[in-house]
Design a protein that fits this description.
heterodimer; A: 125 residues; alpha/beta; Rossmann fold; five-stranded parallel β-sheet; 5 helices; 19% strand; B: 701 residues; Beta-Lactamase; nine-stranded mixed β-sheet; 47% helix
Chain lengths: 125, 701
């Protein structure tokens, strides 16, 4: 399966972050989380994950900015990124994808959709 | 030869006057012409030489009237007196029905008389006329000449019985008609005698002498009433040809033609003058037609008056509000002095009061007592323009010979008519323009109203958009949490702590959703709610409830002015308003320091007078409000900050709700930058419950 694949979730809302962590662990992934962009960056630098889940709206540095920084950094540019947003506007989605994000999910998304997306990106098997 | 016409019952007869030259034959005819044709309808055809001699003959046709049932017309002829015109005499004599021989009583003319008499006898015979059958009457003319031959001497010579000649002074009319009457009677007697039997039978019987007498009665009467003077030749229109001096005739004709040309020239220049006047008038019409400006219209008319008439000056005069004659506009000389001077003012006023044009030929003679107030002017006219308000053209002509005749006054009358039409048009236009301006003003106001209504609708629409956007955004996160947690609980067994944590997440998210729903319902309810229940409430209680609602008990510093203990308010609503301000301060401004609430006494400016009030201030040390957002902060569903990074939560209803509540209490809610950084939100309320009028302002009241 996809055992050992490491996923980092960056979202300021613990009530959104925690269910995802739990579900991903149940699915056999190694899940870690960060409450804002800076904490997320530190986690990535100390141990680059196989996939990053980024909330767009966060206090401090927003998800889109962090996404752009990661894709501009050769060390992390190859890590697929999934953006989460409470704003469903098309231009947010376009901007995210143009910055190099692999997927853009609008809240409220279903965990099954989320799982399918993660599975695809981590190229199971 | 006489012509009886039985079917038309007419008789034409020919009577020839014969005699020596200058004997008075033509004079006889002139007198008769004057008498028989007083209207001058018939022309006495006289072919005369310059030295008063008959060249060919004279011919005077005249109707004698009805005789014996026939209409009788007689043609009177004269022959040229001089023997050398014998051929003419013969021709004229041909067909004569009777002859009057006019003999000259002057003894010096005795031989001429005889020659002419013998010539008559000869010509009668030549013309086949029997001298014994054709009646020949002898008129002894010129009885007034000195040493006139005695009638009986002359009669004897002519072989007449005593008294057989008719005495006459033709030049004063004496005996002229008598001669004609006698000649006509003799002629008619002979014509009746010579008529065919059928003709004679058709004649009405009766005494011919009587009838002739009756026919001539009016002529004789006229003759006696006003004896004609044959010398007054010019009084009768006569056709005179001068054959002896054609050059003289040509010159006379040339002179006559010259006179005619002069007349025509005069007529042409009069027409030219009238055409020029008409052109001026059409200029005035065009000028006034092109303008709706009263000054321009009046000026065009006055210019036309001065230039066309070469007037010294022209003005439009009227009656001022004070009842005095006043001037409006002018061309040429200033006519003001004419109106103001004591010598002429009242006169002009009188002329203005008249409904017809009036003129003064010479101002100087009209006002003998004083000098004319304007020098070098003579005639003056006042021509009415409009009756109400009364106005007139005042025109003054220059000295020494400026005159205002019929032509000029007529022109001024027409001009005044044009001006009246122009002024009426100006007034109508002004009226229309006033209406139009009013209409435009109304349209502007209506447009403004509509725009305001439109803006309101648009802002409501924008509010709705913000609401939908905020609500959907605010609901997405808790829904995501709930779905995520519920999915975990359903799909996986998990550990006890995990299940608890997920249940906690669900409850928390559900609480957030409920808060959102409350806010929406509160605003909706507030907008449509009835008047708040205002009563004096204890300030301490209101503040305590507010802090509880804001979940800020013990987190906020409160300072209350001891002079303020109660305020008139709806306790529940006022607590909500303050709670919202505290909540807002904590969300947006708490990073910089503690939030404070201060209550103090203040004065409110109300319609000029100060009213005692209460100020409730909520202060923070946040980043403050940038100027662009100063107004927006109170709009419903507006939230400050960067939407990607600041996520205070909520729908953006708090400040909107707080201000609505303040206003429904007759108060205000404003925000001020705070010295040393931060923001102060201040509710100001009247301290007494006198805010009823303002309470109605909230919605639809």
């Amino acid at each position: 399966m996809s055992a050992g694949k490491r996923i980092l979730i960056v979202d300021d809302d613990a009530f959104i972050r925690r269910p995802l962590e739990f579900i991903l662990r149940e699915e056999g992934y190694e899940a870690a989380s960060a409450a804002d962009a800076d904490e997320g960056m530190r986690a990535i630098e100390s141990r680059p994950p196989d996939l990053i889940v980024l909330d767009v709206m966060m206090p401090g540095k927003d998800g889109l900015t962090l996404c752009g920084e990661l894709k501009g950094d050769p060390r992390f540019a190859a890590i697929p990124i999934v953006l989460l947003s409470a704003r469903g506007q098309e231009h947010d989605r376009q901007k995210g994808l143009s910055l190099g994000a692999s997927e853009f999910l609008t809240k409220p998304y279903s965990p099954h959709e989320f799982k399918r997306c993660v599975r695809q990106l981590l190229g199971r098997g | 030869m006489a012509q009886w016409n039985r079917s038309e019952r007419t008789l034409f007869a020919k009577l020839v006057y014969y005699g020596p030259a200058l004997g008075g034959k033509t004079t006889n005819l002139k007198v008769l012409h004057d008498l028989t044709d007083p209207e001058g309808r018939e022309k006495l055809v006289s072919v005369e030489t310059a030295d008063d001699r008959t060249l060919f003959f004279d011919l005077l046709p005249f109707e004698l009237g009805s005789l014996l049932g026939y209409k009788v017309a007689v043609k009177l002829y004269t022959v040229p007196g001089q023997v050398r015109y014998d051929t003419t005499r013969r021709v004229v004599l041909a067909g004569a029905d009777a002859v009057v021989f006019v003999a000259d009583s002057d003894p010096a003319r005795e031989a001429d008389n005889r020659l002419a008499w013998e010539n008559l006898q000869k010509n009668l015979r030549v013309n086949g006329l029997d001298p014994s059958a054709v009646p020949v009457l002898v008129q002894l003319n010129k009885r007034d000449v000195a040493g006139a031959l005695a009638p009986d001497v002359m009669e004897r010579w002519f072989g007449l019985s005593r008294g057989g000649g008719i005495t006459a002074v033709a030049c004063d009319g004496t005996g002229v008609v008598e001669t004609l009457v006698a000649a006509c009677r003799a002629m008619l007697e002979r014509l009746v005698a010579m008529a065919e039997p059928a003709t004679r039978k058709s004649l009405d019987a009766g005494d011919l002498a009587d009838q002739v007498g009756r026919a001539f009665a009016p002529i004789l009467a006229r003759c006696r009433a006003a004896p004609p003077a044959a010398q007054t030749e010019a009084s009768r229109e006569r056709l005179v040809l001068d054959a002896s001096d054609l050059l003289k005739s040509a010159v006379a004709a040339g002179v006559a033609l010259g006179g005619q040309v002069a007349d025509e020239h005069g007529r042409a220049s009069r027409l030219a003058r009238e055409a020029e006047a008409l052109r001026r008038l059409s200029d005035v019409l065009r000028g006034t037609g092109a303008s709706f400006d009263r000054g321009v219209v009046v000026g065009a008319a006055l210019d036309a008056a001065t230039t066309t008439l070469e007037a010294a000056g022209a003005a439009l005069i009227g009656i001022s509000a004070a009842g005095r004659v006043c001037i409006e506009g002018g061309a040429g000389r200033d006519l003001g002095p004419l109106i103001d001077a004591a010598s002429t003012g009242p006169m002009v006023a009188r002329m203005l009061a008249r409904d017809e044009a009036s003129t003064i030929e010479n101002l100087a003679t009209e006002i003998e007592s004083a000098a004319v107030p304007i020098e070098g002017v003579k005639a003056c006219a006042v021509v009415p323009v409009e009756a109400a308000p009364r106005s007139a053209l005042l025109v003054v002509m220059p000295a020494p010979d400026g005159a205002l005749g019929d032509h000029e006054v007529r022109f001024l009358g027409t001009l005044a008519g044009h001006l009246a039409v122009g002024l009426d048009k100006v007034r109508t236009h002004a009226e229309i323009r006033r209406h139009r301006d009013r209409l435009e003003q109304t349209v502007r106001e209506r447009t403004q109203d509509l725009r305001k209504a439109y803006d309101e609708l648009r802002s409501v629409d924008a509010m709705k958009d913000r609401f939908l956007s905020n609500v959907s955004h605010e609901m997405r996160s808790p829904l995501t949490a709930i779905i995520g947690a519920a999915t975990f609980l359903k799909d996986y067994e998990g550990r006890k702590e995990q299940r608890d944590e997920m249940a906690e997440a669900i409850l928390h998210a559900a609480g957030t959703l409920r808060g959102l729903l409350d806010g929406v319902l509160r605003v909706a309810g507030l907008e449509s709610a009835a008047t708040p229940t205002v009563e004096p409430v204890a300030l301490a209680e209101v503040l305590a409830e507010a802090l509880r609602l804001a979940e800020a008990e013990g987190l906020v510093g409160v300072t209350i002015d001891p002079r303020v203990s109660t305020l008139p308010a709806d306790r529940r609503l006022m607590a909500r308003a303050i709670a919202n301000l505290v909540d807002n301060a904590r969300k947006f401004g708490a990073d910089g320091g503690p939030v404070e609430v201060r209550v103090s006494s203040c004065m409110l400016a109300r319609s000029g007078a100060g009213v005692r009030g209460v100020a409730i201030a909520v202060l923070d040390r946040g980043p403050g409000i940038v100027e662009e957002e100063a107004d927006r902060v109170f709009a419903a569903f507006e939230q400050g900050g960067d939407p990607l990074t600041s996520k205070p939560g909520g729908l953006g209803l708090g400040l909107h709700e707080a201000r609505t509540i303040a206003r429904r209490h007759g108060g205000t809610l404003i925000h001020l930058p705070r010295p040393g950084g931060g923001t102060e939100f201040r509710i100001s309320l009247p301290a007494e419950a006198d805010a009823e009028p303002a309470l109605r302002s909230a919605r639809g009241a």
